[in-house]
Amino acid sequence: MDSTPAPAANPACVINCAVYARDGERRDIPLEAISDVLAHDDGSFVWIGLYEPDDAVLETLQEEFDLHDLAIEDAHNAHQRPKVEAYGGALFLAVNTAQMVEDRILFGETHIFVGPRYLITVRHGASLSYAPARARVEREPGLLALGPSYALYAVLDFIVDNYLPIADQFKSALRALERDIFSDSYRRSTLVRLYDLKRQLTEMRMSVAPLIDVLSQLVRSPSPQIPEETRFYFRDVHDHVIRVNDTVDALRDLLGTAMAVNQSLVTLAQGETVRKLGAWAALLAAPTLITSWYGMNFRSMPELDGRYAYPLLVLFVGVVCFGLYRLFRRIGWL
């Protein structure tokens, strides 16, 4: 009978802890059994998935895998810029993750330790489970023989693939906002939404752009943890990141243009309103000026004593107003 403790013995922050044999067979183990697995150099490797682990778990893993103090310190702090660092024979990566929640991007981080026979992922904040990446790797037992480097590729590819639907969702949101921008009525909410989208895209670019350099280093890395057989996989992820980054840059430019166009249209609409008000003011000013003259207490006023003075004055005022109205219509003020 198998006496290996059940995975439930692991702390709650340990999402997965499994050993993968060279033939791809998976076996879940508790953290305490890691030493026994590493003691047998049979080509297997350990893949551990953590979510916001406590200090005790990280200290345990540091002892089991001889992780560097600086890498553990970075894993404690979930505010790292995307990077890759080499500590002896191991690599440490910090990568930003993103997911859409109620039409907003929430960002998280994943810290990854890669060694000769282990891969450790430490998730913080808004970060999807890497269960799909595990399932994908487990469906390809032949590639599992490449070791932790192929599992690292699966995780990074999963992270980058999650950026693509976010970019597509922003494209759809921008198309919807374009209809509001060119509508006849100005809505302040449109400008607020444009600004909010551009701010979120700027934050997304801050996560995506540094990842290009991280993957470039992995492609060119002399580290034994990234063998030649897996480098072209990382090159594929690198191409995907560049495409996402270009899409984000294009969307940011379009949003900036949309904000400028929206502001210009608002200014034009205000100008149209001012011109119309000016035209109506001129139409009212002409009869007001004429009638104000005749409201003065003078006896020697033109046509004051004439029999048809009042009707002629009314007709004259009407002609002046009609002439001004035709003039303003012709020049587009009314």
UniProtKB/TrEMBL annotation:
Q: Say where the protein is mainly found.
A: membrane
> Keyword Transport, does the record have it?
yes
InterPro entries, per the entry: CorA_cytoplasmic_dom, CorA_TM1_TM2, MgTranspt_CorA/ZnTranspt_ZntB
List the source organism. Luteimonas kalidii
Asked whether the UniProt record includes Transcription among its keywords, one would answer no
The residue stretches assigned to a coiled coil in this entry are: none
UniProt protein name:
Magnesium and cobalt transport protein CorA
Say which family it is in.
Belongs to the CorA metal ion transporter (MIT) (TC 1.A.35) family.
Instruction: Name the residues that span the membrane.
Output: 277-296, 308-328
Provide the alphabetized UniProt keywords: Cell membrane, Membrane, Transmembrane, Transmembrane helix, Transport
The membrane topology of this protein is: Multi-pass membrane protein
Q: What CDD domains has UniProt attached to this entry?
A: MtCorA-like
What subcellular compartments does it reside in?
A: Cell membrane
